Amino acid sequence: MGLIRMRNEMTIERLREIVEAYGASPARWPEAERPAAEAMLAASAQARGLAEDAARFDALLDMAPVEAPSAALTERLMAARPRAAAPLVRPAPDLRPKAERGFFGGLVEAVWPYGSPAFPAGALAAALVMGVALGSTSGISVLDTRSSVAVTDTEAGEGLIALAMANQAWPEEWMQ
Amino acid sequence: MEQPSDDDLVAAVANGDEAACRALMDKHLMRMLALARRMLGNQADAEEVAQEVFIRVWTHADRWEPGKAQFGTWLYRVATNLCLDRLRKKRPTDDIDDMPDLASGDPGPDRQFEQRELAARVEAALQELPERQRAAIVLSHYQGLGNIEAADILGVTVEAVESLLSRARRQLRVSLATEKDELLRSKEISAS
User: Fold this and answer.
1) Which end of chain A is more exposed for a tag (fewer CB within 10 A), N or C?
2) Measured over all CA atoms, what is the biggest interatomic distance in chain B, rounded to whole angstroms?
């Protein structure tokens, strides 16, 4: 086929090869040969005939259907997009004078100076519930828990799952 | 106002910028979908491929290195390879009944119906092409890419691209000889 050619070398045979491969639009023709091919098109009726035939075939090819993306596709993609990392938010400091916080407030702050004491208190309670529940179901407890634990095995199991999941924030894309 | 470049948008996507995600989809989703539709011949599969392409963009956005490659070319390469993979996996189970009917009788008097019928036959003829010829014509004719970019995406030489295109168009001309005449006739009717 002799495809590597000089920029200005163009023959009717080469133009035929070009339009038979790339169609009638010069925009799709090989860049290096485009000026010479266009010059031939302007100068030769035979060249224009080749291009006109290719243009009719291009028009037929252009009939192949396309459809716009569905709303569901764009919604799925937006739901799966990357999210900015959530900034670490420190609790606002308690700006009241120590005297106003009272004895209990001062004690709590001395023990847990990092914000709300609800978090460590909750964690402590959760650990307690887990320990009791595991002890009661595994049968290795040194205490007889049958009378002191008022929840059934099933309830205890559900409670454990709820506790384990309570602080989990799953990114949306992990759930897809 | 100057539009942000693909590289700028990808960097913003990596930072979780919702507007950048939308802008990138507005710019490229339709093209990826059209490429996949022409490669695979049905919209449902095409949407799955387009989705997979963008999921890869979302996943790899933070590792994109601006200036190292053209983002558009990378997208075309991912989409083309996903389509070729699908076609290779599908090949052994292809059922002749699933193939669109090429010669499906008279188009009927309704002009719109006639147009849809012609479109379906062009799509069916595309589906009959060998995969790499189909990929070449989709990238060159339908996506308007130059021979160098198409060769880069397909991992072949520009000479090989030209050869794939020539063979593809030759086969399509044979498959669509009747349709070409029909199209010419309908254009003559419209003009008169």
Assistant:
1) C
2) 58
SS3 A51: helix
**Min Cα–Cα distance to chain A from B141, Å:** 7
Which amino acid is it at A173?
E
Q: Which residues contact B103 (CB under 8 A, 6 or more apart)?
A: B121, B178
Going by C-alpha positions, the residue among B75, B53, B77 that lies closest to residue B7 is: B75
Residue with tokens 């490429």: B35
Cα three-residue angle B48-B91-B136, rounded to 5 degrees: 70
| Distance between CA atoms of residues B42 and B90, nearest Å | 13
Give the A:B interface size as CB pairs under 8 Å.
130
Q: What is the distance between the alpha carbons of residues A77 and A82, in angstroms, rounded to a whole number?
A: 10
ipTM above 0.90, yes or no: no
A86 to chain B, any CB pair closer than 8 A? The answer is: no
Tell me the pLDDT of chain A averaged across its residues: 68
Residue pair B160/A1 in contact by the 8 Å Cβ criterion: no
**pTM reported for the whole predicted model:** 0.69
Q: Pick left, alpha or beta for residue B35 (phi over 0 → left; psi -120 to 50 → alpha; otherwise beta).
A: alpha
Grouping H, G, I as helix, E, B as strand and the rest as coil, residue A43 is helix
Residues from chain A contacting residue B13 (CB–CB below 8 Å): 81-82
Are residues B141 and A58, on separate chains, in Cβ contact within 8 Å? yes
